[in-house]
Amino acid sequence: MSARMDLRHLLQWYLDAGVDETIGDAPVDRYALAAQDRASKPPRQHQAQNAGSGREASPVRPTPSRQSRTARPATPETAVAGARADAAAAQTIDDLRRSLEVFEGCPLKKTATNLVFTDGNPQARIVFIGEGPGAEEDRRGLPFVGASGQLLDRMLASIGLDRSRVLISNTVFWRPPGNRNPTMAELSVCLPFVERLIEIVSPSILIALGGAAAKTLLARNESVGRLRGRWFTYQSGGLAAPIDTAVTFHPAYLLRSPDQKRAAWQDLLRLKERLESLPPDS
Ligand code: URA
């Protein structure tokens, strides 16, 4: 086989493994860096038990998970427990963002460039939850700013909305490599942050964009085609009242399946009608 063919096979192997971007000119041996890092650190005096985030115990206002952290999660269960403790301690979206910035319990963080958390209005009456960041979102650290985000903006505009009137987030906050679907473990460890975000914003209406968001918010496994066109209720422990929730097609799916745009348009009209029926201060 020629050297050229070898290179093509190597590139294809990278693509299949989800490596679809170059981020530097020279290769970096991360194993060697980690070994150097370990060698340069004094041995730890004390190993904490809770593994949600990588922060050291803090002298200021300790929260349950801050009191007991290790640098890496021991198991997916301890990572979820850490996520729950961190999320529960947050009182604002900025608190949640700061927690996520130091959270080490989601393996997606290791391959992502940026945290992608929210965009829009923290006081919005409507919250959209998508699936997970793509390449452009990962580069810019904002949700829905690539091709599907542009379609979402046009969908919002068609019913008189824009990002100043909605809040947008995702089921996972770091880009799954190669845009693969998030795994159950990744969804589970991000879920406490999604739930707390919804509690903090406490919107009147919640929209799940696509199947991953529907599964996360409503614990329903049916296809989007079956779930759309109805109102569900979303509830979590910290909410004063259930939230009206609808499912519609993910904009990325609409880009691939333009024949479904008619159904999505009907969903948008239903949403507009529901928004207009809300009392002015709810
Ligand atoms: N798709 C998503 O689900 N979320 C984004 O932020 C971008 C694309």
What is the second-level CATH architecture?
A: 3-Layer(aba) Sandwich
The pLDDT mean sits at 87
Count of DSSP-assigned helices = 12
* Largest β sheet strand count, sense and barrel closure: 6 strands, mixed
Return the domain count.
1
What portion of residues belong to β-strands? Answer: 5-15%
Low-pLDDT parts are 44-70
Strand order of the largest sheet: 1-3-2-4-6-5
Ligand types: uracil
For CATH, the homologous superfamily is named as Uracil-DNA glycosylase-like domain
Overall spatial form: globular
| CATH topology group | Uracil-DNA Glycosylase, subunit E
- Compressed to H and E, one letter per element, the order equals HHHHHEEHHEHEHHEEHH
Radius of gyration: 21 Å
Helix content: 40-55%
Query: Strand pairing plus helix content: what structural class?
Result: alpha/beta
Keywords summarizing the entry:
alpha/beta, Uracil-DNA Glycosylase, subunit E, 6-stranded mixed sheet, 6 strands, 44% helix, globular, binds uracil
Detailed description of the structure:
- With 282 residues, the protein is α/β, with parallel strands linked by helices.
- The chain has one domain (76-276): Uracil-DNA Glycosylase, subunit E.
- The protein has twelve helices and six strands.
- The protein has a six-stranded mixed β-sheet, with helices on both faces.
- Strand 5 (232-234) and strand 6 form a beta hairpin.
- Helix 3 runs parallel beside helix 8.
- It is globular and about 60 Å long.
- Mean pLDDT is 87; it is low at 44-70.
- The structure holds uracil.
- Uracil is lined by residues 130-134, 137, 143-144, 146, 148-149, 170, 252.
